[in-house]
Amino acid sequence: MSVMNTSSHQPCLATSGWNNITTTQRRIRSKKIVAYQDEEETTPYTTIGTDEAKRMIDAGAHVIDVRRPDEWNRGHIEQAELVTIDGIYSFGKALQDLNLPADEDVIFVCASGQRSAMASEIALLTGLHKVHNLANGMNGWVNRRYPIER
After folding, report:
1. 3-state DSSP assignment of residue 32
2. pLDDT tens column, 71-85
3. What range defines the domain where residue 7 resides?
4. Domain count of the fold of the chain
5. Same-domain pairing of 117 and 66
6. pTM for this one?
């Protein structure tokens, strides 16, 4: 993957890291920083535990599983729909195609809570308002011995 240097439009490798970019590029990046907040970052979605997720699902919350199909096939939450998070645009489009009501609870799940956190942020951009990330993902679900479907 390459990124364009905004000063000279020369490509530089994004994967090369901060130490491998030029002094000019560092200055340009530094000028783009407008504020620094020394507080714990808050997220606009809710991170929930396994027991709370189970209660919400039993009450009718929508469940979106963002794992790969091979992970899904090993076991998933019965009420879940599979929407893999292959890319930001395609994932956002797939969410919109589901026509989920913006004011209903939607829980995003992956294996551990990492991919579903990213999915939760994308979901907010698509207009969903009641977005929740399952903190420990399917690992937590299975550890609590909640039912899974294969």
Report:
1. coil
2. 999 999 999 999 999
3. 2-31
4. 2
5. yes
6. 0.72
| Radius of gyration of the chain measured on its C-alpha atoms | 19
In a domain, 65, yes or no: yes
Contact 64, 91 (CB under 8 A): no
Structure confidence by residue, pLDDT tens digits, 108-141: 999 999 999 999 999 999 999 999 999 999 999 9
Q: Is 47 exposed, middle or buried (0-12, 13-18, 19+ CB in 10 A)?
A: middle
Contacts of 138 (CB under 8 A, 6+ apart): 65, 67, 71, 75, 76, 77, 109, 110, 111, 112, 148
Residues 50, 87 share a domain: yes
Based on the domain organization, do 21 and 70 belong to the same domain? no
Confidence of residue 44 (pLDDT cuts 50, 70, 90): confident
Please report where in the chains the tokens 């407008």 appear, as a residue. Answer: 34
CA angle, corner 113, sides to 108 and 115, nearest 5? 75
AA letter at 6: T
